[in-house]
Amino acid sequence: MIINDPLKIFVTIVENKNSSDAAEELYLSHPDVSLQIQGLEEELGTKLIDNSSNHLELTQSGEIYYEYAKQILQLQDKAKQEIKRISNVVTGNLRVGASYTIGEYILPFVVAEFAAQYPKVEIETSIANTREIIRGVQANHLDIALVEGEVDHSDILVRPLMEDEIILLVPNQHPLARLPIVTSEHLQDQVWILRESGSGTRAFSDKLFKEWGIHVRKSYIFGSGQAIKQAVTAGLGIALVSRWIVRKELNAKEFKTIRIKGNPLTRSFYLIGPKNQETSEAREVFTEQLLTLESATWRKLSKKGIAI
């Protein structure tokens, strides 16, 4: 197909490092290519290519324009893909799994946005701890899943999705609540509220306790983030939780969050799926939508009641 877009012609010349190869690639004559570049330079009021050299060299203006031209062409391609997608109806069934933090506080909003765009897709969701969700993926009971914590299984596709901050919760009347910042020494011999074994949050806590040499005086085990929040509010102990789950309670001052000295505690959320399962259009579209979510989307979700 003959290309007459000056932007595309310019980028092709730069990437081929000469106009002759670019003209051949674009099914244009060499004079046509030269005229397009000349017209582009006249429009911009500056030289883009230094013609005095024996090989192709960009001027300073040309280097700047090349970087922006690439971005413009990429956005054009993305727009064309999106237009093509909405003109083709996506159908099918999609089984989505999620570990508790993601499943209770993030997944409903993600699914709602996807369902609004692709109403013909039937979606079934499953929420369990990370270990159980991984098993569901391995057994091909789930097409795609979102989990917190590391996943190291050769039969599962794993893609990083986003970063999550872990924060320390303490009851309002707890001695630590009077401190603006705590160290690992302050966390020794405390009563802890923990998630059950198999939870991504529990795996994070166990790893941190081992790294910092924290001795746990006593612990209480609960099977959900909601139960842990209630236990901290009741004064039962302190806990490490995802910031995503405590926005409303912090605003209501039901408990306090205390900063731990050092860098913020973070972990990754992951998108996982069966490695050997035949993919579907619904799964591909859902995967792409998740991987291309930008910070503006997360801010939008935050306004609906989720903390970022």
Automatic annotation (TrEMBL):
Record's keyword terms, sorted: DNA-binding, Transcription, Transcription regulation
PROSITE patterns: HTH_LYSR
Record domain HTH lysR-type: where: 1-59
Keyword GTP-binding: no
CDD domains in the record: PBP2_CysL_like
One MF annotation (Gene Ontology) recorded for this entry: DNA-binding transcription factor activity
InterPro entries in UniProt: LysR_HTH_N, LysR_subst-bd, WH-like_DNA-bd_sf, WH_DNA-bd_sf
Recorded superkingdom: Bacteria
Pfam families the record matches: HTH_1, LysR_substrate
Family of the protein in this entry: Belongs to the LysR transcriptional regulatory family.
Protein name: Transcriptional regulator
Organism placement in taxonomy: Bacteria, Bacillati, Bacillota, Clostridia, Eubacteriales
